[in-house]
């Protein structure tokens, strides 16, 4: 075998194919001629070494022809390292039961961690209430502006469109029965009670909940949280509580805006499609929609806000020391908080219906 | 001499891996104390345990006379005001500028007037070798060396007696690193600080440290001054200290 020119890791594959074509078993002596090689790297050296080993196993004698000291050195280096380097560890083969058990345990641990978070939150709340001085008004105001006031536009727009769409679809059905005026009852109850709070919660979860996770997660990676702790600033007081309180305060206001915009969309469709004037719409609205529907919708606000904010913040604190886990936890935060909001809504629905409200 | 930190038989276990198995060391007042060891030996972990960022699983750590094992919240809170910590990457609060970063503990913990706080910030910024004009820059706008200096200024904001430095010269160019060393020495002279630092930088180790603890194989294999360190039989010490730098 004669090798020539630059012998690098790009060439190894080609040579291997050539060698595979030869029926080695029949041979009794092989000459490896490296005299024409101008450049020789470690990959080539590993290749030559394993070639020699292979021939040795088949009891074929090998003769190396080298006239370059550098090449000899490289081959020696690989040979020497081979004797005292351990094999790379193989990843453990895990059977399905093991994987399932591990996953279950991880989920169980995650649940426990969330409980621990809620417990810490509860204790911090007491600490918070001990003195007015402990409450971080500035941070709360900042967060209200950041995660609620700035969300007004998008919430107004979405709920307006939802009102529009629901009204348009039901107008078509109601026209068939000539029950045009009942659009008021329908819209009033569905928007005030369910749609406005739910839409607001979903928009806020996607917008502010994810922001909480990303902000706190990034602070964790840059060790800012550690720095805060060593300076005696409890992150729960400085970062966690202000966000949760801000959202609890702001959510009912956002739901109120969503109510108004949704009904406004309804009025518009009722006017254009069904010929119900705004005045008639509002008179009927006043007559048939009890105030309780409005209160129930608003009441859901703080609960949804707590769920969204606490899950967002918790996910932020769960971020590990790598950037990928920010993405992972942000996704989780949005999915989990929307899920939690819908479950919470279902529970409310059952409770209120059973209470006859 | 008075002991600032006493570590007795500390054990640390991560999952199933034992990191520390019975560490003992003590840091005296007014010295620069180094934690040295091969990477992965748990130097930073030990530092984090000393500043209550991480729990340990056995033994005891005493910092400034407070035992960290069963420390109450109030006690812990007051202890945290008596030390300063410099993190490896600075860990400046990215949403605040340098002045706000440094003044934050002063605003939170002291009733000082705004004017007084400004004076202190100005003094601290110049003490660590930054210019007053840098005060309004945000951490993202400054270089790595400046970040470390600013973080040191923040660590010194409350005039602590004890300062922890986590690899203060890592990531700095050699000139800035030597500047940082002389800065640390100067501050120790000026303010009478006790400094505990984790370092890999051989030059910095020889230039600044009074005493060292070498952690290897889960234990402290040497504690004392650098002079007679080479008498210890250890592969790590022999290779690490084999080429004494100039100076």
Structure description:
Chain A has 357 residues and is mostly helical. Chain A folds into two domains: 83 residues, Transcription Regulator spoIIAA (2-Layer Sandwich), CATH 3.30.750; 221 residues, no CATH class. Chain A contains twelve helices and three strands. A three-stranded parallel sheet of chain A has the order 1-2-3. In chain A, helix 1 links the parallel strand 1 and strand 2. The longest helix of chain A is centred in the last third of the chain and has 40 residues. With 247 residues, chain B is α/β, with parallel strands linked by helices. Chain B has eight helices and ten strands. A six-stranded mixed sheet of chain B has the order 6-7-8-3-9-10. In chain B, strands 2-1-4-5 form a four-stranded antiparallel sheet, covered by helices on one side. In chain B, a hairpin with a 2-residue loop joins strand 9 and strand 10. The longest helix of chain B has 18 residues. Chain B is globular, with a radius of gyration of 18 Å.
Structural class of chain A: mainly alpha
Give the largest interface.
A-B, 13 and 22 residues
**What order do the strands of the largest sheet of chain B run in, or round the barrel if closed?**
6-7-8-3-9-10
Beta content of chain B comes to 25-35%
Instruction: State the share of residues found in helices of chain B, binned by percent.
Output: 25-40%
Radius of gyration of chain B: 18 Å
